[in-house]
């Protein structure tokens, strides 16, 4: 076997030479630390394991000496140096607070101080500063290290840059706050629309027609309200909207059966689904399955079409009056549905059967 070659300008590590330390990019800080601290517990096979782990891990790690004044850092691996931008000689011998700055949260720093005083394990997120002044959010995990006699010898610290995670959280929080504000404004808008419809209906003597219009407005409001939290992502879980639209017609009686999973569809289908299902439900109450005591309605939904982006909803009535012929009173509701579906470039089929109405609607994703 060929003898391992030591890179130029580097001295062999203390102890036996290892093949893994011959690579030019090998991190020599672990074996330098072990050579400078011969009395610690990282000896023999465990010392080799320590060197390998610290040299190869991508996690930023440092060790601090709890017995020296101001608890200085005595070891920092390459990942720590790359994360912070400092060289080895600028790190070792300093307390880790040198990474803090004017915007570092003192409450998080206090948590670290308490953990060190009580020899506890803790994880905090705090704003730290690189050598060049750039800030980053550091998920800092610290904890004590003991020798075989149970004596504290080091404090261990691992650092993880979670700036991207924090940014994603902030964006998600902002989206939720905007959704709540939008929900509040939409409720007010629907309330104003309902008020206008009611006043107009009374003034013109068409209160029954006004109530029908208001029911449609309310169905739209329920559909949108359940989907606003997801709207910023572009897709929404349609099952939540369907339940919100139809639950008021069932009221826990068990006469409504829903079958669907967590299917997500484009947000633009919400209005069509809301009005269509409301019209079908209203018709079922007046003329269909829900006009009897034992009638039931089953609503199922699934994805179809290119990339499974189209939404297909099936409406199945059972146990109501003979539905071989459509009711003449259902014409206006059917006309509204047909116009909505046509405008959305979707399709609808109806089958009038003795056991009940069957409807299949395809909402096309855009």
Description:
The protein is α+β, with helices and mostly antiparallel strands and 366 residues long. It has 2 domains: 57-161, PAS domain (Beta-Lactamase, 2-Layer Sandwich); 166-363, 2-Layer Sandwich (Heat Shock Protein 90). Helices cover 42% and strands 22% of the residues. The protein has 11 helices and 12 strands. Strands 2-1-5-4-3 form a 5-stranded antiparallel beta sheet, with helices on both faces. It has a 5-stranded mixed beta sheet with strand order 7-9-10-12-11, with helices on one face. Strands 6-8 form a two-stranded antiparallel ribbon. Strand 9 (296-304) and strand 10 form a beta hairpin. It starts with 28 loop residues before the first helix and ends with a strand.
What radius of gyration results from the CA coordinates? 34 Å
* Coarse morphology: elongated
What is the helix tally? 11
The level of helicity is 40-55%
Q: Quickly name the level 1 CATH class of the largest domain.
A: Alpha Beta
Architecture of the largest domain, CATH level 2?
A: 2-Layer Sandwich
Order of helices and strands: HHEEHHHEEEHHHEHEEHEEHEE
Major sheet details:
5 strands, antiparallel
Short overview:
It comes from Erythrobacter westpacificensis. With 366 residues, this protein is α+β, with helices and mostly antiparallel strands. It has helices at residues 29-36, 44-56, 78-84, 88-91, 106-118, 163-204, 207-225, 228-231, 238-250, 270-286, 331-343, and strands at residues 60-64, 73-76, 122-129, 135-146, 152-161, 235-237, 256-259, 264-266, 296-304, 310-318, 347-353, 356-363.
């Amino acid at each position: 076997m060929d003898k391992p070659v030591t890179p130029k300008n580097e001295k062999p590590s203390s102890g036996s030479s290892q093949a893994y330390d011959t690579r030019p990019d090998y991190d020599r800080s672990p074996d330098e630390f072990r050579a400078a601290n011969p009395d610690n517990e990282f000896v023999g096979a465990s010392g080799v394991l320590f060197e390998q782990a610290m040299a190869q891990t991508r996690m930023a790690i440092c060790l601090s000496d709890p017995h020296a004044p101001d608890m200085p850092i005595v070891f920092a691996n390459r990942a720590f140096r790359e994360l912070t931008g400092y060289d080895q000689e600028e790190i070792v011998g300093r307390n880790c607070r040198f990474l803090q700055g004017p915007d570092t949260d003192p409450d998080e720093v206090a948590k670290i101080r308490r953990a060190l005083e009580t020899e506890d394990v803790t994880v905090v997120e705090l704003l730290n500063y690189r050598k060049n002044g750039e800030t980053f959010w550091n998920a800092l995990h610290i904890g004590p290290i003991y020798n075989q006699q149970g004596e504290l010898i080091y404090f261990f610290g691992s650092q993880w840059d979670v700036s991207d995670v924090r940014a994603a959280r902030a964006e998600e929080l902002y989206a939720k706050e905007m959704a709540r504000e939008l929900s509040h404004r939409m409720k007010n808008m629907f309330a104003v629309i309902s008020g206008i419809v009611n006043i107009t209906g009374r003034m013109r003597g068409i209160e029954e027609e006004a109530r029908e219009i208001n029911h449609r407005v309310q169905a739209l409001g329920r559909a949108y309200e359940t989907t606003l939290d997801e709207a910023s992502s572009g897709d929404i879980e349609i099952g939540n909207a369907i339940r919100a639209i139809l639950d008021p017609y069932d009221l826990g009686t068990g006469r409504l059966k829903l079958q669907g999973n967590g299917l997500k569809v484009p947000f633009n289908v919400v209005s069509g689904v809301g009005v269509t299902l409301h019209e079908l439900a209203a018709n079922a109450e007046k003329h269909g399955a829900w006009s009897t005591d034992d009638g039931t309605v089953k609503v199922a939904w699934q994805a179809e079409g290119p990339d499974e982006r189209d939404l297909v909803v099936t409406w199945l009535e059972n146990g109501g009056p003979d539905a071989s012929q459509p009711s003449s009173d259902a014409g206006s509701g059917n006309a509204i549905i047909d116009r909505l579906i046509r405008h959305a470039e979707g399709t609808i089929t109806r089958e009038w059967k003795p056991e009940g109405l069957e409807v299949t609607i395809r909402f096309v994703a855009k």
